[in-house]
Amino acid sequence: MNSLWNDAEAAQFPGELGQRVYTSRLLGRDQSLVLHGGGNTSVKITEKNLLGEDETLLYVKGSGRDLEFIEAAGFSPVRIDHLLKLAKLRQLSDPQMVNELRTHMTKASAPTPSVEAILHAILPYQYVDHTHADAVIAITNTADGLARIREIYGDNVVVVPYVMPGFDLARRCAEQFAADVRKNTIGMVLMNHGIFSFGKTAQESYERMIDLVTWAENYLAKHKAWVLPESNEKPEAKPLLRDLAALRHELSLTAGFPVILAAHEDAASLAFARRADVATISQQGPATPDHVIRTKRVPMIGRDVNVYAEVYKKYFNEHAPKAKEPKTMLDPAPRVILDKEFGVVTVGRSAKDAAAAFDIYAHTMEIAQRATLLGGYKALPAKDIFDVEYWDLEQAKLKGGGKPPPFAGEVALVTGAASGIGKACMDSLLARGAVVVGLDINPAITKLYSRPDYLGLMCDVTDETQLAEALEKTARRFGGLDMLVLNAGMFPPGRRIDALTTMEWDKVMRLNLDSNLMLMREAHPLLKLAPNGGRVVVIGSKNVPAPGPGAAAYSASKAALNQLARVAALEWGADNIRINSLHPNAVFDTGIWTEEVLQARAKHYGLTVEQYKKNNVLKTEVTSRDVAELAAEMCGPLFAKTTAAQVPVDGGNERVI
């Protein structure tokens, strides 16, 4: 641990709440302390209320807020006098507690306070920090963790045996703290949960956290349990796309909805998945109970989804009857998979969920290995994990996202995606919740977006090897393929047949026709395994039903592609793959419509460029977004029973009509 405190930075966060924001962000920068909304911080501030009376408020992190990016508005101001009264109650249910927290805030717009607000209130310090430090958890999660913690810290910390977060934990901490606090106490360790620090200032509380965690790191180093052995494990050289797609198909059926898979083949992940004792070390449970909502209690080893689901159902049936209130079983699909070929595979309803599961499990792997070197990794009993997994307050965090978007958990691939219709198609699919892979020969495709649900690959779609590599990368990044938008193409300058060279003809055919045949052929095994059925949208052309002079190569290539799509519809229907075509015309915000081509076509028809842009029955201009929105809808439920359709997007073309 190193303190990240910087006087110049700190000066930019004035006031007690400002300082709280600053040090909260410092904690959030270090993933070995907090991950994905974990941890919480608070500050006690005396302010004048509307009546001019002094009132002490606890500004505590709002539930689910990420410390790394928190703003002042992310803290919930709660009247501390009421919290201290609540702490004296003999019992308080979770719904009652949340109601009391919310109804005693001074800002209606503030987020729901952390469930540990009462715990923060009873600690007699202005600033309180709470993290799930990896080093501390690695020590607590051993058979003799309690003795080791006391050896490290003595009476510098109050040690509290594990109690489930919430009101009962706050009461237990209050009792333990009152009994064990000493002059030199600067923190508190919650076994199998995390560590607290506190102080008179934000800097003091923050730097005490750094010191306390450093002591744990030094202890691990002293016992040769800090530096993990380096690994030179290498990923499989053979293609894994079909195996990953088959696994994703099974997982989606088990979960009851499409899921995203992310295969992690870094040396550390492969080494852990290939450990001789992986069946023992990985099946103990999560590092801290709250991780269970992201990772399930244990990962799946290997690929037998049915066996994992049956074991999960037994786990639920064993513990649900002992719960205080009735529970409805969550889906039994794993969220983490350990496999000798795949490495560590994480599963989620979205790419963000799958990424969060890996972030958490990557730290869990380190914690488990350090605890093993210290004598043996030992997580909490399954009952304690179940109580958190099915805790109403934790479930509320997951349900807070509302109804998932229509393409949640599905993977789309778009060709010619760096601009024009292709880029617009990606935007429309992303907006509907799909993860999207964009292919383009333009290197700009790789940096078009920076988000977990996007993968941009520079690819010459006329090259079979590059196409195969792109599909392999798609499967390893997201698990498979559900939707394919065939958009890449070229519209060469106008050329009459008597002036058309064989070389130009071949070039157009290679891109507009042959590349699509190759991609369809290679993608078919993945589309066949799409949980909701595969979907292909072909971006055709008005020139299919109504070709124009000077466009022989383009018109013939698009007509042949249209015929290919019709045959595919016949052949692939039995595989639950539907394929439909769009025939746009005069979409001028695309790459193929260079100024030269536009002027040439307008001149051919005796029109100005502006007249040519709206030369249709409706006298309207057709944009890339117009085409993209219909392409996305063709992948959705409105077209669920339609295949081999050809739909014009042209404002009404007299020759087509």
Automatic annotation (TrEMBL):
Pfam families: adh_short_C2 (PF13561), Aldolase_II (PF00596). The lineage of its organism: Bacteria, Pseudomonadati, Pseudomonadota, Gammaproteobacteria, Acidiferrobacterales. It comes from the Bacteria. GO terms for biological process: monosaccharide metabolic process. NCBIfam families: PRK08324.2-4. One of its GO terms (molecular function) is oxidoreductase activity. Keywords: Oxidoreductase. The keyword Oxidoreductase applies. InterPro entries: Aldolase_II/adducin_N, Aldolase_II/adducin_N_sf, NAD(P)-bd_dom_sf, Sc_DH/Rdtase_CS, SDR_fam. Residues 19-220 form the Class II aldolase/adducin N-terminal domain. This is Short-chain dehydrogenase.
